[in-house]
UniProtKB/TrEMBL annotation, chain A:
GO BP annotation list: lipopolysaccharide transport
Residue intervals passing through the bilayer: 55-79, 91-113, 133-155, 161-182, 194-213, 254-275
Family affiliation: Belongs to the ABC-2 integral membrane protein family.
Protein name, entry field: ABC-2 type transport system permease protein
Gene Ontology CC: plasma membrane
Residue ranges constituting the ABC-2 type transporter transmembrane domain according to the UniProt record: 40-246
TrEMBL record, chain B:
Keywords: ATP-binding, Nucleotide-binding, Transport
SUPFAM superfamilies, A to Z: P-loop containing nucleoside triphosphate hydrolases
GO molecular function: ABC-type transporter activity; ATP binding; ATP hydrolysis activity
Signal peptide start and end residues: none
Designated name of the protein: ABC-2 type transport system ATP-binding protein
CDD domains, alphabetized: ABC_KpsT_Wzt
Family stated for the protein in its record: Belongs to the ABC transporter superfamily.
Taxonomic path: Bacteria, Bacillati, Actinomycetota, Actinomycetes, Pseudonocardiales
Record-annotated ABC transporter domain positions: 24-255
GO cellular component: membrane
Keyword Cell cycle: no
SMART domains linked to this entry: AAA
Length: 286, 255
């Protein structure tokens, strides 16, 4: 609001905020939020669409996820020679949280490109597409939660009140899904090389983050114990932990919550700045 | 947005729309091209720019029924998108007040896999209605579109004409204050067209502003009284429909 263009526009046209103003950026976010009936509906539609005319329908989300989780869980617990009772749930729950995170990042980079038609033909707030994306990923996650429930029945874990922390933990994940989609979505719309870069980084990050391996197992090995601690500098590890630890009844590490909190604030700061400066350009770039 | 004025209005003040063309080779576009079709291609910056609209200044008020005429690529669709708020001007200003309903591409925002009924609801939600408001209008739309039982069929089974009926049915049912129509709604049969004209006429009488881009003189004459003649991304003439069409076509087509 403080740059010269905005100032000039204000003086000539009453108090109408210019294209590059915080008011318009926040206005977009709140207008999108008000249309939650629309993106709520569209998010469901996206899921139903994928499984249209199949007999099991959206149940396939849980089944396909369950098969991968079971397969990887068994494979890696044999490779690491660990107890399947703890390792299989670790891998499975890690995978379904990862699925949400990577879904937000990967689809986030395509969020405006994929909605080119809607953006060019129907006036709607940009944030609408972001809300729809995060909502769709949330629905996927909730479907996959069935796998967690089954695992907790088969391999009982000591779940306590700390389980409830999974709710704010997941909420933080979803909130972060918002800025990452806005940021990577806008950047990728302008620079079309970004989506493949993001895709390869996310793939690499999958192996860098303790999903199919665990810090505990490596800590048992004196040779790599110190190296395993390096995982602490991987921000995705903390995002994973704030949901995974409560779901598996593990000890809550507040350090992870603090790291995620800081990233949330900084990330939204950058996301909003990007929104303020380039929101109006997206329709030109798609 | 404004609480002070409830009258719909469109104000464009020196508005420009410049498209950066990222994948075009700058070198091959070194010479500025100014052909019969399309906007001017600027070459000042590193990325080639198409000046789709240049220095557009116009004010439309309630009751204005404006025809948009001009060659392909003259900027008709772009100015409609500017009025819809899809593009914000790269230079200059644009202010649009009122509930805008655009009918640009009838396929967009329509899901071929879901029923016509669901599409009506989604279209309505996109135009700023609530689900309840749309559900209350479904019967009215069903009657107007004469689609009957077809409304429960997936949209992919519809012909182009049926889709046009659906889109027009939604837009005309929601009382928009500003109606923006792009060419391409000609795919309906004559009988329905007459009905749509009646309804559009009614709509424009009742409220707001109509801007209609079309190559059909007859249709334009029916719905509009003034016209904008676009050429190379600028307004060449703005005035009474008959006069502008006369100058544009070189003969008095409405005589």
């Amino acid at each position: 609001m403080d740059d010269s263009t905005a100032g000039r526009e204000r003086s000539a046209w009453g108090d109408a905020p210019g294209s590059r103003s915080w008011a318009r950026a926040f206005g977009d976010l709140s207008a999108g939020w008000r249309q939650r009936q629309l993106w709520g509906h569209l998010g469901w539609q996206d899921i139903k669409q994928r499984y249209r005319r199949s007999v099991l329908g959206p149940l396939w989300i849980s089944i396909s996820m369950g098969v991968i989780a079971l397969g990887l869980g068994i494979l890696y617990s044999l490779l690491f020679q660990t107890d399947i009772k703890t390792f299989l749930p670790h891998v499975a729950v890690g995978l379904l949280i990862w699925n949400f995170i990577s879904g937000c990042i990967l689809e986030g980079s395509e969020v405006f490109i994929a909605n080119e038609g809607l953006i060019k033909f129907l006036p709607a707030p940009l944030s609408l597409h972001v809300y729809r994306l995060v909502w769709r990923q949330t629905l996927f996650f909730l479907h996959n939660l069935v796998i967690w429930a089954i695992l907790m029945i088969v391999f009982p874990h000591p779940l306590g009140w700390s389980l409830l922390l999974a709710i704010p933990g997941f909420a933080l994940l979803a909130i972060n899904g918002g800025w990452i989609s806005i940021l990577s979505g806008i950047l990728a719309t302008r620079f079309r090389d970004i989506p493949p870069i993001i895709a390869s980084v996310v793939q690499l990050a999958f192996y860098m983050t303790p999903i199919v391996w665990s810090v505990d197992i490596l800590s048992g090995n004196a040779a790599v114990r110190e190296r395993a601690q390096l995982v602490e500098i991987n921000p995705l590890y903390h995002f994973l932990e704030i949901v995974r630890a409560p779901l598996l009844g593990q000890e809550i590490v507040w350090r992870s919550w603090i790291v995620v909190g800081v990233i949330t604030v900084v990330g939204w700061g950058v996301g909003l700045l990007c929104m303020r400066n380039y929101r109006a350009r997206v329709a030109y770039w798609v | 947005m404004s609480l002070l004025s409830t009258e719909p209005s469109i104000d464009l003040d020196g508005a420009c729309v410049d498209f950066p063309i990222f994948d075009a080779k700058t070198r091959s576009l070194k010479k500025s091209v100014l052909g019969r079709a399309g906007g001017r291609i600027g070459t000042e910056s590193k990325v080639p720019i198409i000046e789709a609209l240049r220095d557009i200044s116009i004010g439309l008020r309630k009751g204005d029924r404006v025809a948009l005429v001009g060659h392909n690529g003259a900027g008709k669709t772009t100015i409609l998108r500017l009025m819809a708020g899809i593009y914000e001007p790269t230079r200059g200003r644009a202010r649009v007040q009122g509930k805008v309903a655009p009918i640009f591409d009838l396929a967009v925002g329509m899901d071929p896999e879901i029923s016509g009924l669901d599409n009506i609801i989604i279209r309505g939600l996109f135009l700023g209605m609530t689900r309840k408001e749309m559900e209350a209008r479904v019967d009215d739309i069903a009657e107007f579109t004469e689609l009957g039982d077809y409304l429960s069929m997936p949209l992919r089974t519809y012909s182009t004409g049926m889709r046009v009926r659906l889109a027009l049915g939604v837009v005309t049912s929601i009382d928009p204050e500003i109606l923006l129509l792009d060419e391409g709604i000609g795919a309906v049969d004559a009988e329905f067209l007459a009905k749509a004209r009646g309804r559009l006429n009614e709509l424009v009488e009742r409220s707001g502003i109509l801007v209609f881009a079309s190559h059909s003189d007859e249709f334009l004459a029916d719905l509009c009284d003034t016209a904008i003649w676009m050429e190379h991304g600028t307004i060449k003439e703005f005035g009474p429909l008959r006069e502008v069409l006369h100058h544009y076509k070189g003969r008095d087509v409405l005589a």
